[in-house]
């Protein structure tokens, strides 16, 4: 748990400006959503697809990230599972209803959300944490979720 608190504190050091925080509340979930959608769009072998339409590269990455999250906090990992489930359901809806292919929509969202992230850090005057350590790409979503847990009075 000390590692989690240390990582959240270090991530928070470059996210003090209210504008940058707001940008992160919008852009981090959009980046997660779009990255999952891009991975979801990569074809999987037919034998795997026949088992379940939910088995794809996006769910594989979710499982791998979940292993990392469980090591940091089981409770936050459970929250991430719920976030991912909602995003996966939304991806299925978008994929079925959109005029463009899912990968194209997600690529546009991904690019715009990263532009937003870098703009937020320009406003902040500090470099993004992941430039120092790539694991902060996984810490960003937990950083947001830990605020939700705090607001609800839940331990993590």
UniProtKB/TrEMBL annotation:
The keyword Aminoacyl-tRNA synthetase does not apply. Keywords: Membrane, Transmembrane, Transmembrane helix. InterPro entries: Mpo1-like. The keyword Membrane applies. It holds the Pfam family Mpo1-like. The chain crosses the membrane at residues 22-42, 54-70, 100-119, 131-149. PANTHER family: 2-HYDROXY-PALMITIC ACID DIOXYGENASE MPO1 (PTHR28026:SF9), DUF962 DOMAIN PROTEIN (AFU_ORTHOLOGUE AFUA_8G05310) (PTHR28026). This is DUF962 domain-containing protein.
């Amino acid at each position: 748990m000390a590692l989690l608190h240390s990582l959240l504190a270090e991530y928070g050091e470059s996210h003090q400006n209210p504008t940058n925080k707001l940008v992160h509340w919008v852009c981090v979930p959009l980046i997660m959503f779009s990255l999952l959608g891009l991975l979801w769009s990569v074809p999987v072998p037919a034998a795997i697809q026949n088992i379940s339409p939910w088995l794809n590269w996006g769910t594989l990455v979710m499982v791998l990230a979940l292993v990392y999250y469980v090591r940091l906090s089981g409770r936050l990992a459970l929250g991430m599972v719920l976030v991912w489930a909602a995003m996966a359901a939304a991806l299925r809806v978008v994929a079925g209803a959109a005029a463009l292919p899912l990968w194209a929509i997600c690529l546009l969202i991904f690019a715009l959300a990263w532009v937003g992230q870098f703009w937020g850090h320009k406003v902040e005057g500090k470099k993004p944490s992941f430039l120092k350590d790539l694991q902060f790409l996984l810490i960003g979503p937990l950083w947001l979720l830990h605020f939700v847990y705090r607001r609800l009075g839940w331990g993590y």
